[in-house]
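Task: encode each sequence below as C-alpha cells.

Item 1
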Amino acid sequence: MKMATASDGIRMKAAVVREKGAPFVLEEVTLGAPRPTEVLVRLVATGVCHTDMVVRNQDFSAPLPMVLGHEGAGIVEAVGADVTTVSPGDHVVMTYMSCGLCDTCEEGHPAHCENMGPLNFGGGRLDGSAATTDAQGETVHDHFFGQSAFAEYALASERNVVRVPEDVPLELLGPLGCGIQTGAGSVLNALKVKPGSSFVAFGAGAVGLSAIMAARVAGATTIIAADVNPERLKLAMTLGATHVINSREQDAVAEVRRITEKGADFTLECSGRAEVLRQAIDCLGIFGTCGIVGATKEGTEVAFNVNDVMIPGRRIIGIVQGDVVAKTFIPVMIDLYKQGRFPFDKLVRFYDFADINQAVEDSEKGVTIKPILRIAPASPKA
C-alpha cells in the first residue's frame, strides 16, 4: 500500500483493539500525512511488550479503539517540513514520546516528562488529535507511545525516532525502544549499579534479563535472577547471572541474604506484582536501592515496614524507560551488542504480523520472552 499524495495520507493494515480484553484485529485504516515535526515510518518489525497487554486489558486507562504497539523499527518514508535529524531512507527505532519543554525534559529526564501520560497513553497528539481513521471514516486512537507500531506505517515525532546503523538487522532492534532499554537503562543509568556490587532482578522476562546483561556490563560481581520459570533461570545463567532463585520453591528474601551475606546493593522489580516488590525491598542491605519498573494495574498498593526502610537507609525509586535519553542510549546498546557483550537477540522469537494474537498469547504464557512481529522486509524488493 502506498501513499496517494502527501496530503491524502496512506491506506494500510493495522492491528486494532476495539474493546477491553478483545483480540487484535487486522483492519484497513487510513493514516494521515506527517505534520511539520512528524516522521512517517514504514514498519519492518515491532516488538510486543507487556504494556501493550496492560492497555488492551484496560489496567492502564487509554481510549479505545486504538492501534497499540510501541517497539517499532522501520525505515523513514517521509518527514515533515521542520524535521532535520532524519531523512527518508534512514533506519530508525521508535521509542517513548516526551514534550521536550517541561522542567524534567529540560533537565535531561524526558522519560519522566510531565506530559508522559497524555503523550504516550492519551490516544493521540498532545492537542488531542488522532491521525487514523477506519474503513467507515471513524477515528481510531493512535500515537501510542508516540508511534502506534502495530501497523504497516506509523507517524512518530522527530523527538522519538532514533537513527540506527544499517549493519545490524533492523527487524531485531525495535525492542531496544522500550523493554530492553528499560532493563538495561535501569541498571546502567537510573540505579548506576557499581563494579563489585550485588544486583537482583525480580522477574526474568525481557526487562529482567536485559537488566542481568547490563549488570554484567556494569561490573556487578553478584548477579541474581529470581523467577518461577526454570527455563528462564537457565537462560539467565548464560547471560550473566551468577546465581538464580526459583521463588516458587525457595524463600527469595532469605536466599538473597544468604548469597550476599549482608543483603543486596541493588534490586529491580520487573514483574509488576505487589508481593514481589515487597520481596525486592526486604532483601536490600544497608543503603540498598530498589528500582520499580514492573507495570501494575492502576491503584495497586504495597505495604512495607517503614522502620525496615528508614533505619537501614534503603531507597525505593520509580523508573520509567531506564530514565534514559533514548537517542544516546540506544546506540550504546547496539554497540554493546556488536561487541558481544549484550546478546539481547537470545531473548527474541519472530512471528508474522498476522499471528499477532499468537505472539501475545505466547508472551502471556511465558512461552516467548520477547516476541517480535515481522511487518515487512527492510527492502521492499526482498
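Item 2
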Amino acid sequence: MRYVQSDRLSAVPNATGGIARLACERIRKAGKDLARFVSRAGLTLEAIDDPSHRLGVETQIKLLEAAARELRDDHLGFHLARDFDLRQIGLLYYVMTSSESLAEALRHAERYSSLNNEGVRIRVGFGRAAVVTLEYVNVERGSDRHQIEFWFAALIRVCRHLTSRQLTPRQIRTRHHRTTVPLDVRAFLGCAIDFDADADEIVFAPSDACLPSVGADAYLNRLLLNYANEALGKGKLSRSSLRFRVEQLIVQLLPHGTANVGEVAGRLGMSRRTLARGLAAEEETFSELLDRLRTALAKRYLRERELPISQIAWLLGYREASSFTNAFARWTGSTPRRFRADHAMEH
C-alpha cells in the first residue's frame, strides 16, 4: 500500500471507525479502563459508542497500535478481522455479496471502499493473476500495521464467503516489516506473507475471479448500488444521517422479511427508543420511512414488466402477494396490476 495524494478526498481522510470500535470492544471485555484508553487517543466514550461518528484514519491507526500494546497482541489487526461479523462492514459488504461474481464484487470494492475508509484505495487487476492492491490516500503508510492487516484478512474472508469456497491467495505482499507470523494467522490466510515488499497486495489465481457469488441478486445489487452512489456524494442525503443508515438496513433486510424497528435498532447498536428519538430529530418515523421506501421500490419494480408481482412482494418483505396488494392499495389508491397496466399505457 503506497502513499498517494488526492485532491478528491478530504485532506484529513476519515473512516467509519469500525476497526477501532472492534479493538475498543476487546479492551472493554478485557476489563480495562476504556474511557481512559480512548482519552489518550483524543477520543471520548461517546464518540466510540456512537457508530455514526466517523474517525480520522490517522486516529484509527494510532488507536489500533495502542490497543495492540494494551492487549499484548502484536497481530491484533488479523485477529480482529478473523473474528468479527462481516455484516458490520455495512453497505459495501452487501453490495459485494449480492454481486454476480467475485470479479464484479472486487470491482465494486474498488469503487466504493472509500465509504468505509477514505484513506484506503482498492485497485484490482485481472490478467495472469487476480490482484487486489491497496493504497493509502493522504495518509503516511509507514505508520500502520494493524489496519492494513485487518483489510487483508477481511477481504479474504469476504471473498471466501461470497464464493462459498475456502479461497487461498497465491501470495500476500506488504510493505511493512515483520520477522514472524504466528501459526494461527498463517493457517487462516493459507499462504505466506512477504514483508518489506514494494506494494500491499493480495494475489489470487486468475480462475478465482470467475467464480460466481452464491448470494448473487441482480435486483438487490442494483438497488444497493443506487444507495452506494448516493453515499459517494451523488445524492442529497448525507451518509452520516440516521435516516440514510436506516434506509440502507431496510433495503438489506426487506427480502428476508426482517425489516422491523427492533432488528434495525439492534443492527445500529441502539434501543428502539433511541432510534425513534434520532429519527424524530430528523423529522422522520420508522413506519413512515418504511412505507415510503417500500412504495418507491414497489413502483420501480412494477415498471420492470418481467418481474412477477409475487417476486416483488417477496423483495419487499411480504410472504403473500395479497398482503403486498393490500399495502400497495393503501399507499397509492391503486393495485399493483393496475399501476403496471397504466404505466404500460403511458409508455
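Check on item 2: Residues 1-11 have pLDDT under 50 and may be disordered. The radius of gyration is 22 Å.
End of task.
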